[in-house]
Amino acid sequence: MASQVSVGQLWGAWAGLLVGLALASLLAVLMWDKPFGIQVPSLVAYTAFVFFFLFRDYDPSYLEAYSLRQKAVRQEIPHLFAIHAVFLVVFFIVLTIALSLRPSLPPSWLVEGGKRRSTFGSLLVLIFAVTMFIQLYISRRILSRSVKTDQAN
User: Is residue 25 part of a domain?
Assistant: First the structure.
């Protein structure tokens, strides 16, 4: 069920993502040399992306769009928060382990070669993306089931 959205809501969705990413960038600059200085901003960016892609009711081309205005969606918020908390913990642990392995990696993994990114940097982006898409898949299945149940009643 695609929601009808105004231009203001479209800009609001993008503004929310940009604010989340700006906050993550600011935290990264402020915390870079501190313990967990990479992980904390990564968690903020991760949360912004998950929220943006989960509630993307601004995109009329997507078949199933979920809005926080829907009662069935609001009823699932506690479950979505719990799932998100678990994924944040998993993401934090995996990222911390990956960063702790960095000193023992070969130099070719850490240095950009020519026009390609470092293998280690690409691996971190892959960890971010895979974790996010697994969470989005699970959350969208929950929301889909909830909305269909609500529509049937």
Answer: yes
Strand partners, 116: 113
Q: How many domains does the chain have?
A: 1
Q: Average model confidence (pLDDT) for the chain? A: 79
Per-residue DSSP letters for 5-47? Answer: --HHHHHHHHHHHHHHHHHHHHHHHHHTTSTTTTHHHHHHHHH
% the chain with pLDDT above 70: 78
Residue pair 128/50 in contact by the 8 Å Cβ criterion: no
**Is the distance from CB of 147 to CB of 66 less than 8 angstroms?**
yes
Domain that holds residue 96: 7-152
- Whole-angstrom Cα distance, residue 44 to residue 148? 31
Q: Quick check: 150 and 71 in contact, CB under 8 A? A: yes
